[in-house]
Specification:
This protein has about 60 residues and is mostly helical. It has one domain (about 1-60). Helices cover about 90% and strands about 0% of the residues. The chain is built from three helices and no strands.
């Protein structure tokens, strides 16, 4: 379940940065948990850190 949430958040961040359509964010968001889980717990930590940094930067800019 944690993989799904992290994948959705990564896809949303990529879609916000790109701004075109949700297709690119959806595809990368669906693939990200599988790729990150292959790296083991370190991959999930890296994915979570990416999302946390993007959220922190957005909040700091506001």
């Amino acid at each position: 379940m944690l993989r799904t949430i992290i994948g959705a958040l990564i896809g949303r961040e990529i879609d916000r940065r790109d701004g075109d359509s949700g297709i690119k964010g959806t595809i990368i968001g669906a693939a990200a948990p599988r790729i990150l889980s292959r790296l083991g717990p370190l991959g999930l930590v890296l994915g979570g850190a990416y999302v946390a940094k993007k959220a922190y930067d957005r909040r700091k800019a506001a």
